[in-house]
Amino acid sequence: MMSLRNIANMSLNIPLRAVVGGTNLLGSGTNLSNTGIVGCATNVGTQDSSRIPFNRGVFISQSTNIYSNLAFEDWLYKNWSFEKRNVMFIWQNSPCVVIGRHQNPYVEANLQYLESAGVPVVRRNSGGGAVYHDEGNLNCTFFTTRDRYNRKENLEVICQALQEDFGIQAHVNHRDDIIIGQDFKVSGTAAKLGRQSAYHHCTLLVRTNKQQMKLALQGDKNIQSKATASIPALVMNLHDANEDISVQKLISSIGRKYLESSTKGIDASSQQMYQLSNGYTLINPTDDWFPGLAKVEAELSSYSWLHNKTPRFTITRPVTVPECVAHNTTVNIAVQVYHGKVEDVKIASQDVCPDVADLINEIGGALKGSQYTPAIFNDLASRMRLPQPLRNQRSVM
């Protein structure tokens, strides 16, 4: 497998750097010799900014940990100024499912299957739909100031790389998806816009395991939810369009096109100066390199962030009433959940025996305010067997 250093070196022969535009990414007082980044940087801070376009840099993550990469994305968004430099962050992850900030994990992901497979489900800070990541998927994040935010321009950089370097005819549709062939989606988009800074990120299906992707994204579509729903689409791997393409080659191609895109139309001397001031930076998203990143990562990996940020939803399941309570009786029970907590428990069946209805309502009242888990329906059935003082406790499991 081609190393990230080789990817950087083969693209325009631009140097790898630990410093961008003369600014230490890691903060003052950090010993760069201990970071493992190689190369040098050109300080262009004293140059006449009217002679050159906005500087650009490409950061390539050396981690495949989804929590670390998302944490770095958020860290950079909050701590970096993009007034003088736009940045593209390129990253890959081990298998995982990433949902949008306003989505429901129970609807979007096959949680039981993913848990058994040891595949994490992660909520990101941007909106949009759910995506499956693995080593055959490439992620690109474009950072700018809010006033320079332009997702169409970003996506055209990728389309240009696909067309010119791999002969793949690609275009951007009205949803800002990248499409090839007969309306096959190879890239989806999401964004986060703040008062001063903004980022737009997208996925690229290069050689993703589509069978695993299909299994991973089979959530419970019967849940009634106010959350943002993913929109199904026909998807295709870029490798199916050109067998010569790889993630490593695509990193090189997109990075080069991104750095070249701001040098068009300027004079040769300015272009040379610009090329010297831009390049690739290999980053290791850890707290040692970026102080405060570990706190962001801990938040993104917490149970509360994934579950307790979920918009209101209602899930209905049949519950078999124990024989000691009623013979051959099954009742549909609807549980309403808001931000991870049980908000209400209601009977969704008709003509339920009054005694059974009273028992369910009594137990449901005791469960209000508790943390929701799918085991709540088994908990309801178990509580029906208990004497009155025990079945009304907040937790009996």
TrEMBL record:
<dbReference type="InterPro" id="IPR045864">
    <property type="entry name" value="aa-tRNA-synth_II/BPL/LPL"/>
</dbReference>
<comment type="pathway">
    <text>Protein modification; protein lipoylation via exogenous pathway; protein N(6)-(lipoyl)lysine from lipoate: step 2/2.</text>
</comment>
<dbReference type="GO" id="GO:0005739">
    <property type="term" value="C:mitochondrion"/>
</dbReference>
<dbReference type="Pfam" id="PF21948">
    <property type="entry name" value="LplA-B_cat"/>
</dbReference>
<dbReference type="InterPro" id="IPR004143">
    <property type="entry name" value="BPL_LPL_catalytic"/>
</dbReference>
<dbReference type="GO" id="GO:0017118">
    <property type="term" value="F:lipoyltransferase activity"/>
</dbReference>
<dbReference type="InterPro" id="IPR004562">
    <property type="entry name" value="LipoylTrfase_LipoateP_Ligase"/>
</dbReference>
<feature type="domain" description="BPL/LPL catalytic">
    <location>
        <begin position="82"/>
        <end position="250"/>
    </location>
</feature>
<protein>
    <recommendedName>
        <fullName>BPL/LPL catalytic domain-containing protein</fullName>
    </recommendedName>
</protein>
<comment type="similarity">
    <text>Belongs to the LplA family.</text>
</comment>
<dbReference type="GO" id="GO:0009249">
    <property type="term" value="P:protein lipoylation"/>
</dbReference>
